Amino acid sequence: MSKRAQCGVSILALVAAAGLTGPAMADPVNLSDWTTVGNSGTSGADGAVDLSPFASSEYGWISTDDGADMDGLGVEDETTGSTITSPTFSADAGDELDFYFNYVTSDGGSYTDYGWAQVLPVGDDPIQLFTARTNPDGDTVPGFGLPEPDVDVTLDPEDTPVVSGAPQWSPLGDSSGDCWDDGCGSTDWVNASFLFDQAGEYSLQFGVVNWADTAYQSGLAFDGATIGGADIGDDPAQVPAPGALALMSIGLAGIGMAMRRRWTSRQ
Q: Of 80, 106, 125, 266, which alpha carbon lies 20 to 30 A from 67's?
């Protein structure tokens, strides 16, 4: 290999090490500062739930499997479930809250489990964002018989029928691959976003609950929770630190000077 080719390879290696060669998968969702009641975790692509369009290498989830006793949204006959709540974040009026969710259920028929997301203002009442409920006959979101959303939330796609079938998904525990009557399946990934109308301190909560019994589990996968484009509950997107950028610049300059000297010496 010629000296010039070797220098070119060195430049490419340096650029690759800096992560500048093209788009890469995002870091896994970080739930270390989130608070769980019941059962939560993270997962890569798993059965019926592939990675989200946010392109994290892992998404978060909550499940009624091994859940805690809870009232859910208080529509009666809730039994067990789980919630997960983000750390507190600041939002200005006009900031956009954005995230992906995927409701997954092995329970159908009249045993209509449900999930939800809400914003919890510090010192004020919850703000309902969406509900998702087992429904073999129409859109899963909004959940029938559940509280109406308190704010206008944009969903993409707007239509959310359940993708029918007995969902294979590890967070469902022993119910993975099972189905009770019509209505089992998942919504697939849905993007939700809304704008804050006033500044304040908030947290984001996801929940899922069994209804009428504790058999045939349901869960909610979520990913890409951002406020004003910044991750909730995680460090800012990793970019080369100023020192690293300086070192990279020095290295590139050094390689350029070396190539120039070699080129000049051959004239």
A: 125
